[in-house]
Design goal:
With 421 residues, this protein is mainly alpha-helical. The protein is built from 17 helices and no strands. The chain is 76% helix and 0% strand. Helix 2 packs parallel to helix 8.
Length: 421
Amino acid sequence: MSISTLKRAVRESVSGLPRAFWWLWASTLINRLGAFVATFMALYLTLDRGYSASYAGLVASLHGLGGVMSSVAGGVMTDRLGRRPTMLIAQVASAVSVAVLGFMEHPVAIAAVAFFVGAASNASRPAVQAMMADIVRPEDRVRAFSLNYWAINLGFAVSAAGAGFLAEYSYLAGFLGEAALTLACAVLVFLRVPESRPVRAAAGPGKAAEPEIGMGGVLRDGRFMGVVGLSFLISLIFQQGYVGLPVAMGADGFGAADFGLAMAVNGVLIVALQIPVTRVIEHRDPRGLLIASSLLAGYGFGLTAFAGSVGVYALTVCVWTLAEIVNAPTQTSLVVRLSPLHGRGRYQGVYGMSWSVAALIAPLMSGWTIDRYGAEWLWAACAVIGTVAGLGYWLLMRSLPEEDGTPAPVPAAQAPETVGA
């Protein structure tokens, strides 16, 4: 590929998106650059504080439970208070709770604050996704969600490497560093990101006011809840890269460095391929993409049963990473497509909860299966789950409603600018 072709591809990938999107994208990148707690919490509790592995697992579970509960609460706040206020409240609360966690010493206090950290850090996600849906044209949403997912992985890759060096110096510096970067996100949102919540049409002569979208309406939406269930299955599969794979590699005699090398392939491929792959898939039928990604995820992990070297493990990571690259932006865009205009926050919150619940259940699933039957049965189960998810997408997405190309009505003073090529 020539330099001119590469430059043109980059311009086409980033052009035409609103200026507000790029400020939101920048806040996501900054936030993930400070992802210290999620990466090194277990090491901090066991090595620095001297607590048991069981206690570290309990704290991780409470952190995840906080995320489960705040997904729905954040979605409701997004629709009622607005996208921008929800992000500001969540980010400031996250910065304060992370800083406080670094000073906690009593085990009960650590566990309690970890729960609040998980809740605060996850509460802004529905608002971010809903705002992107508000400000980005329907035909650009897959590309926008893909760019945001790319920022998440790029930031996490850099933070994981930097946090390792920081932990050698001071764990407290890591907590305070994450708090500072999260607070910087709040400042950026406050200064640069306008509110985008669509204006609800008022009642007029012969015209009723638009109805409020409550959680009951979300839960009664059969097609959407089916997608949430399938998202949960896909999440169970992807979580095995962080809970089942290291255990299986350890049982095969491989060390932490070997696991790190194999998993590094995941981050490298996402950073290198997310944008080019999105250029290929962004205007294709989401039904076929989600079916294909489900099968790739299931059988990518299924192939792990035949791995006997780091190279083969890395090859299986390549397969399911490609599924992740396709699935993440396509599925998020599908949720927007199925969401009513004034219920985007609640719909994104319930969708995000499927990933949080999977993060809680996946460790139990992998540990029980490996202990009782062996790792081969875990990988076989992943293949079965991927097949079931693919079949589910095939059934649910028949006669998918057309995407509304009408821009969401926003206050004129808050209408975002569009950045040209």
